[in-house]
């Protein structure tokens, strides 16, 4: 029987910008079905790590794999396994949310448009052009686009910011369902209380280095590290 590969493998990753090490020898694994909270103070290296995990930046050294596929040598295949919501989603302004999700389905080759729109909870607004949307509506559209093809890895950068409580609850429920089906989820966030409800592990970085890798039951200890 073949051993299941980690959904995400980060091995001794370094990212330099000139003389500055934004990420400094970071290593961690994420298994299928895990929900990881990626936390850390401002300037910790979270955004740089997220950009490397999604193939937007290449590591200076070290290895990143998505389901066993190297993100440097097999970038297109690896990115095809990822659903991604950036902190500031960039959407096609003159499409409706429905058209946007349909477009993603055509690119991905699979997906249930109506189910994704249900996650977004936009109702009749899904037939309005995105240019008219609030920031919260844009974020819900981006989340639906990321999840529509049920990718095995979801990487979400502050993806719950700006959502009203009912929308956040709906999205978190959908993420939990994806996790139970085997998706690995990495959520970068400053809102630690949210992680207590949904995460299985907390990975905290500071100064580009790993400060803690702990089960969510240790959240209080991790929270205390912010003040050290």
Keywords:
228 residues, alpha/beta, 4-stranded antiparallel beta sheet, 8 helices
Characterise the protein shown here:
This protein has 228 residues and is α/β, with parallel strands linked by helices. It contains eight helices and ten strands. The strands form two sheets. Strands 6-7-8-3-9-10 form a six-stranded mixed sheet, with helices on both faces. Helix 3 (97-108) crosses helix 4 (113-120). The termini are far apart. The relative contact order is 0.19.
Number of strands: 10
Distance from N terminus to C terminus (CA atoms, Å) equals 46 Å
pLDDT averaged over residues = 90
- Residue ranges: pLDDT <50 for 5 or more in a row? none
Cα-atom radius of gyration: 17 Å
The geometry reads as globular
Can you lay out the helices and strands and say which pair or pack?
Blueprint: E1 8-17, E2 20-30, E3 35-39, H1 46-53, E4 61-66, E5 69-70, H2 75-79, E6 82-85, H3 97-108, H4 113-120, H5 135-147, E7 153-157, H6 165-180, E8 184-188, H7 192-198, E9 201-206, E10 209-215, H8 219-225
Parallel strand pairs: 3-8, 3-9, 6-7, 7-8
Antiparallel strand pairs: 1-2, 1-4, 4-5, 9-10
